[in-house]
Amino acid sequence: MHGLKKGGILGVILAIGAAAPIAAQDWWEGAWASDRGECRKVGLIGKAEVAAFLLNKEGFQGYENGCSVLSWHALPEANAVSLTLSCMGEGQRYRAGWIVMRAGEDTAWFWSGAGAPDLRYRCPRGSNDWLERGK
């Protein structure tokens, strides 16, 4: 068996899998919109004014603004995550802090520390398929 002991192939496969884990997406990562109708425009984020944005562990992308995630940590007791961001928008650089609190299966409250939090809806995967089909 080319120098592999019995069970050696399984060990090699498991070692490869352990060396390159697939990063799981956290509940707060994805496309979010202020209303469900805006989910149809996810493919236009960053190109046109839409009320949706993309958020993941690397950053935030909206219309004419974007942020890099400097740090994040889970707040399990509140079913939330705290994000520290370095942002650029309208020619200005600034730091921001967000708390994202899960409100339901596909809803979350986004709070920047000022004013009332905003309720956002998670856009389902494939929300922008209509753009790819030319509709």
Helix content: 10-25%
N/C terminus separation: 55 Å
Which fold name is given in CATH as the topology? Lipocalin
Under the CATH scheme, which architecture would be assigned? Beta Barrel
| Sheet with the most strands: spatial strand order | 1-2-3-4-5-6-7-8
Tally of structural domains: 1
Assess the beta-strand content as a share of residues: 35-45%
Please report the total strand number as a whole number.
8
What is the succession of H and E elements? HEEEEEEEEH
CATH class descriptor name: Mainly Beta
Could you explain how this protein is built, in words?
This protein has 135 residues and is mainly β. The chain has a single domain (27-132), classed as Lipocalin (Beta Barrel), CATH 2.40.128. Helices cover 12% and strands 41% of the residues. It has 2 helices and 8 strands. It has an 8-stranded antiparallel beta barrel. A hairpin with a 2-residue loop joins strand 5 and strand 6. The chain is globular.
